[in-house]
Amino acid sequence: MSARLLALCTGAPSPLPDGKLSAIDKQERAGPIRIGRLGLDGDAQVDRKHHGGEHMAVHHYPADHYGYWRTELPAVARLGAPGAFGENLHVSGLTESDVLIGDRFRVGSALLEVSMGRQPCSTLARHFEQTDMVKRIVANGRCGWYYRVLEEGEAEAGDIFERVESGAPEWTVERAFALLFEPKRVPDRAEIEEFISLPALGPVWRKKAEAKIA
């Protein structure tokens, strides 16, 4: 499967509407951008405890979801351009139901591996000035996901986003998100243990799954 990279986005710390600093508001960058082991050149994370690092180096949010959000939140002008969800990669042709934990994608000269989905947090609610933003994402599963960088390289808008190796069979980002966050979903122990055993699963989501067993 292949998709298309529409934009690469980076951000610098700036105040949210409530005054707290965040780098969630990413802006589209022109030209080739280097993708290193810890993310895109020029990108920042303010809360390094919950964002960034080897297993959350690059954030992908589907361009395919933007039409939905513009309908749901017509007053949010920021949805008119890439980077509104804090994503580094604004890509068409892939959503959470298409992507497996452990999938490997080639974009430009970089090789990326899906580690886990993105957990919605209060920063998104403050960024969009929507108090129910986390609840909305939990309900609709439009979460986005993270990559670790297996091979550093460069990419630019217009590059093909190509899956070169498939990850864990049946473990889509959509299913993983539902297992961890869907309120009415009651996974059995065997399903949780299978999820925990996925070699490519990022440590943050592995710990959340382990807590369900505990």
From TrEMBL:
Top-level taxon of origin: Bacteria
Residue span(s) of domain MOSC: 27-164
MF-aspect GO terms: catalytic activity; molybdenum ion binding; pyridoxal phosphate binding
Pfam family for this entry, one: YiiM_3-alpha
Family annotation (InterPro entries): Benzoxazolinone_Detox_Enz, MoCF_Sase_C, Pyrv_Knase-like_insert_dom_sf, Tri_helical_YiiM-like
PANTHER family: PROTEIN YIIM (PTHR30212)
Protein name as catalogued: MOSC domain-containing protein
Organism field: Qipengyuania soli
